[in-house]
Design goal:
CATH superfamily: ph1033 like domains
Strand order of the largest sheet: 2-5-4-3-1-6
Strand content: 25-35%
Structural class: alpha+beta
Radius of gyration: 14 Å
Order of helices and strands: EHEHEEEHHEH
Largest sheet: 6 strands, mixed
Helix content: 25-40%
Number of strands: 6
DNA sequence: GCCAACGTTGGC
DNA sequence: GCCAACGTTGGC
C-alpha cells in the first residue's frame, strides 16, 4: 500500500445524501454508510486519513460538486447486519467546486475517458488517479 | 461450478 | 419511465 495520498470519488443520490447534507455535518465528519459492494469495500479499506475525494451527485445533477477528506480510516459499518463484513470511513466536506464538473463534460474530455466514472458507472466508491484529480480540479475552478 | 433469472443502479 | 450494465441468487 502506497504512502502517497490517494484520491477517490464517492457517489450519492442527492435525495438520499447530498453535498449540502455533507457540509452541514461540519469538520467532525460522518460515516459513509451503506456500501454493499466488494470492490467499493476494498477501496474504502485502502483509504488513509487525509486522502481526498470528489463528491458526486448521481441521478440528479450528475456532477462532481465538492471535495471531501477522510478523517477516520475504515471500521465496521454500523448500519450493516450483525456479522456482515461491510465497512465505512468518516468523511468531512472540505470545499465545494466553484464550477461543478458534469458527467457530460467528463465524457467529452479525452484525458478522462478512462475514469472509473465512465468505465464502471455503477461502482459507488471509485479510485481517481492523481492526473484525473488535477484535471478535474482545474475544470472545477479549484 | 455453471448459468439463467432476477434485482438494483443510474444514465438517458 | 425505460433499459443497459452488472451483481447476486438459486437450481441443477
Amino acid at each position: 500500500m502506497s504512502k502517497d495520498k490517494n484520491y477517490w470519488l464517492y457517489k450519492s443520490e442527492p435525495d438520499a445524501w447530498s453535498w449540502k447534507d455533507q457540509v452541514a455535518v461540519g469538520a467532525k465528519g460522518i460515516a459513509w454508510e451503506g456500501v454493499r459492494n466488494h470492490l467499493a469495500k476494498k477501496n474504502l479499506m485502502s483509504m488513509r486519513k487525509g486522502d481526498q475525494g470528489f463528491f458526486y451527485h448521481s441521478n440528479e445533477g450528475k456532477d462532481i460538486v465538492g471535495i471531501v477528506e477522510v478523517v477516520r480510516e475504515y471500521y465496521p459499518d454500523p448500519s450493516a447486519e450483525d456479522g456482515d463484513p461491510w465497512v465505512v470511513v468518516d468523511l468531512k466536506a472540505i470545499k465545494p467546486l466553484p464550477k461543478p464538473v458534469t458527467l457530460a463534460v467528463i465524457k467529452a474530455e479525452p484525458t478522462l475517458a478512462k475514469m472509473s466514472l465512465v468505465t464502471s458507472a455503477r461502482l459507488s466508491v471509485q479510485p481517481v488517479t492523481a492526473a484525473e484529480w488535477k484535471i478535474i480540479c482545474t475544470m472545477g475552478g479549484v
